[in-house]
Amino acid sequence: MTLSTLIIIIGLTGIVLTFVMFAWKKFEYSWATGGKDEGEIEALVKNKPELYNGHKNWVMAFFQYFCGAWFLFSGFVKAVDPLGTSYKLVDYFTEFKLAFEGTWFSFLAPIFPWISEHFSVHVSVITIVFEVVLGLMLVLGAFPKFTSWSFFLLMLFFTFLTGFTYLTGYVPSDANFFDFSSWGAYNKTNMRVTDCGCFGDFIKLEPKTSFIKDIFLMIPAFFFIWKFREMTQIFNKPIRGWVTLLATAGVLLLCLSNYVWDIPEVDFRPFNEGKNVKASKILEEEAFANAPVTYVLENKETKEQVTFPMAEYLSRYKEFPKDKWSVKDQITGEPSVKQTKISEYAIKELEYGDDVAEELLSDKGYSIMMVCYMLKGDVRKESRTVIDTTFVTDTIEIVDNGKTSTEIVKSIEETKERMEDYYKNIWDPSYLEKFKEKIVPLAKGALADGVKMYGVIGKADKNTILEFKKDAGLDIPMYTADDILLKTIVRSNPGIVLWKDGKIVKKWHINKLPTFEEIKSSHIR
SS3 of 422, please? Predict the structure, then answer.
């Protein structure tokens, strides 16, 4: 689905809701005044004019339902994957840190890594719940003044995020955002965050597109503040309050169920269950290799520029000698197959860093992959006793059958003890326990049944991975990969992925991981 299609659908939804709610208001009026005489009706409508007004303001009503439906939808597609939103927030926080460093506001820079490490998921869940509930409150007309200001402030926050990201397109990669003198021409490859995350993984929007979208949504945001007293309200105040409260609890439970207790029920990412990763990777790589390339040539003397497709340039390049013409730019067009994270699927072995992704995807039959985008723990500085030994060497002559030879011998002269500092990984106890209780038995069961199992770890070097493997008691091959890739594959740390012939069969959250026997009986045919 494209953004334009989504706008049309939500726009039509807003129009339909506008007329449906008008009819509902008329029904409320008919029900409230039924059986009453003219005097009673006059007194009733005087005290409760909202009963017969229908929509006090039709523009307000449309904005309510359009923006309400927009927030309900965008909030829901993020609620099915709150971890994905938290990862996007980490991207933003990382860029904020870099932007504030070296400026007058450098004291703010350390705040963002701290939030990223400890509160990114909390911020994600709070934002998602607030967005969905705010959309519902707009539809209901609940708490008009609070809802109007909340919508305005949230849109201001979203506009700031997307605006900041879009404007980084004018900032060279080696320059600071606030060094305005270094800004140049817009180049989308300069943007630090490649998509806004407004609709999770359902629709990928470039920050420029999303920024323009948010600018337009600021129009109803200002209108709500100006005309909040004219909001259309349905039901009475207690019912609106209870519906809002129940919706808050429901959306919160939905978010928690999609990352604390289980992986997302709905998977918009490219590594979804049933995806043939091997075939998709081949298609994407071939499409990228065959993407149209355009050459821009410039005359060194006149500065005249000419543009040719690659095939034409190769056939006519002799007409443009290097002493007179230079290749000013080489533009790669859009591949015929959309590029996803599957194109970046690379798994490296620990010793030399060779990419073994193709080899693993080519495995015949079933295999089980353990995914950890980051090992949970800390590094602690400790001391240990080290014995230094001093040796002395001497030579002796050896006579054997009348032949004399010289041999060098070494002997200990002195030993000394000294203290040495070193760094030790201290694993999170509950995290390590999950491996011992669930992953190790799964690995043993797979090994006994002849099913290959291996682990892929992100954000760790060879020694750290091997140390963790030993401490967890894992007896499986270990590899490493980009942590963002691993986050995309499965929303659990650790998570388990069942493969067959390069195709993803099933994925599990660690808290929902079945035993190997259960996996075998249900999924291994």
Answer: strand
Stated length of the chain: 525
| Cα–Cα distance, 27 to 522 (Å, whole number) | 53
Question: Residue 497: enclosing H or E segment and its boundaries?
Answer: strand 495-500
First to last CA, the chain: 35
The tokens of 219 are what?
């129009």
Helix (H) or strand (E) holding 367: strand 366-372
- Nearest Cα neighbor of 389 from 411, 363, 422 is 411
Residue 431 is encoded by which pair of tokens? 């995290």
How far apart, in whole angstroms, are the C-alpha atoms of residue 113 and residue 94? 7
Encoded tokens for 482: 């980009």
**265 and 272 in contact (C-beta within 8 Å)?**
no
Contact yes or no for 224/154 (Cβ under 8 A): no
Q: How far apart are CA 465 and CA 144, in angstroms?
A: 54
Beta-carbon contacts of 392 under 8 Å, excluding residues fewer than 6 positions away, are 410, 411, 412, 413
**Residues 359-387 pLDDT 10s:** 999 999 999 999 999 998 887 776 767 77
Residues forming a β-bridge with 406:
397
Q: How far apart are alpha carbons 207 and 212 in whole angstroms?
A: 9
Q: Which residues contact 349 (CB under 8 A, 6 or more apart)?
A: 356, 479
| Side-chain half-sphere CA neighbours of 300 within 13 A | 8
Return the structure tokens found at 483: 């942590």
pLDDT tens sequence across 407-452 = 666 665 667 777 777 677 888 999 999 999 999 999 999 999 999 9
- C-alpha distances (whole Å) from 376 to each of 259, 465, 493, 494 are 17, 12, 9, 10
Count of beta carbons in the 10 Å neighbourhood of residue 434: 18
Please list, residue by residue across 479-499, b when 16 or more beta carbons sit within 10 angstroms of its beta carbon and e when fewer do: bbbbbebbbbbbbbbbbbbbb
pTM for the whole thing? Answer: 0.79
**How far out from the chain centre does Cα 348 lie?**
22
Q: Are residues 366 and 499 in contact, defined by beta-carbon separation less than 8 angstroms?
A: yes
Long-range contacts from 91-94, C-beta under 8 angstroms, 24+ separation? 91/192, 91/193, 92/161, 92/164, 92/165, 92/193, 93/120, 94/192
Q: Are 178 and 103 in contact (CB under 8 A)?
A: yes
